[in-house]
Known about the structure:
Layout: E1 6-9, E2 12-15, E3 27-30, H1 41-50, E4 60-67, E5 74-81, E6 86-87, E7 99-108, H2 115-125, H3 140-149, H4 151-156, H5 162-166, H6 184-190, E8 203-212, H7 215-221, E9 227-234, H8 237-257, E10 270-271, H9 275-310, E11 319-324, E12 326-335, E13 338-347, E14 350-351, E15 370-373, E16 381-386, H10 388-393, E17 397-398, H11 408-414, H12 417-426, E18 430-433, H13 436-441, H14 450-459, E19 463-476
Parallel strand pairs: 3-4, 18-19
Antiparallel strand pairs: 1-2, 2-3, 4-5, 5-13, 6-10, 7-9, 7-11, 8-9, 8-19, 12-13, 14-17, 15-16, 16-19
Helix pairs in contact: 2-9, 3-9, 6-8, 8-9
Pfam family, one: RtcB
GO molecular function: GTP binding; metal ion binding; RNA ligase (ATP) activity; RNA ligase (GTP) activity
Protein name: tRNA-splicing ligase RtcB
Amino acid sequence: MLEGIERINEVECEVPVGYVPGMRVSARFFLSEDLEESLEEGAVHQLANVATLPGIVRHALAMPDIHSGYGFPIGGVAAFREETGIISPGGVGYDINCGVRLLATPLRVEDLTQMRALVEELFRTVPTGVGAESRMRLSAQGLEEMLVEGVPWAVREGYGIEADAVHCEENGQMQDADAVPVSKRARKRGMPQAGTLGSGNHFLEVQVIDKVFDPKVAAVYGLEEGQVCCMIHCGSRGLGHQVCTDHLRVLESATRKYEIAIPDRQLACAPIHSPEGEAYFGAMAAAANYAWVNRQVITHEVRKVFSRLFGIEYEEMPLVYDVAHNVAKREEHDIDGRRETLYVHRKGATRAFGPGRLEVPADYRAVGQPVIIPGSMGSSSYVLHGTDTAMERTFGSTCHGAGRVMSRTKAKKSMPGKEVREALMERGIYVRATSDASIAEEAPAAYKESDKVVDTVTRARLSLPVVRLRPLGVIKG
Length: 477
């Protein structure tokens, strides 16, 4: 363990006040002993820096997939009081509302006799890679409505069914969205990209449930062993990136204007209810709505492919749930016996609300929110459920994925993409990508083992496993 860090228990560590100057609260991260070797000193330093920000509540937090990011570490969670706190793009990231959704199907693994043909058809249908453009013909007015309304707009336009919105966080629509502070440049970048997968670690996977941990909760979510599912991981594309870029410039000036002392310029921020803070929050929420629509349009195309190839009905592929893992939200939490309004930043962290919360869909409320944790091409993905412990300890938050342990540059040098693809094929996983280079940089070895990450949050009771999914076919950007 790094010097100055105290291990509280087998899965939790504390960074004490004083680790960096100006800390208002301590920082805590969840990491099992067998993941210690993956811990980056820089990521811990970033987490401690977050603890210096005004209005922070309890602790700066990080999940077991922690690694260095822009300002905040990836895997970071921080909540700020509405009256005295700040809003910071570094706590959300450039890919606003990068998130994951899971679609169920009525198919069994034995029905997939032509996996290569299925993956190739999905690859042809879903625009993928850097600069990929949608087949949608979106008007300026349509984009405006999308930014404000999110998934309900997409459903109204014929891209899905009404139940889809119910099974998204925030019903697929952040009510605080404001299209006005979304720049012309951001709109121009977003216009041709709604319904595209993008590049990097984004993917579309065909998976099979190979283990059920909790049959009762699995039944509530409509999941069972041997069932074929589809997982979609992507975000707000160029529009979200531009929103972050635009408002970072403004908030760097705002940090000086409001005399907020920060140890790192990447933590640029503004008071929540300042003009600059409200403009960023409104634009961020609009970009989050765009991301939900992006995943919704991809869902629409995936359903059509499955309907065409397997003769199943469009409605027979229900959306299990859609989670965001790069976003800031206004939420109510119990703090020292009193309900408070907080602005919770989750960057590379997933909401994991427990049973009874009204934000959880009514049909899932008794067991808690579904939590979707993707693997890394060759490793398993998981569905977990939120817990009361998460509500008490982490503002209802858990991990978001495996977490990188190797840079993309190093990954590409370690093993050629062709060899990665062939190795996965030997394991029965068919991978299709825009290039072998994109496969190499996302090789399974570049990530922590998802099993260990999930084991850590399970032992901490931040979320509990429901099912495990094994990849069968993968599309990478």
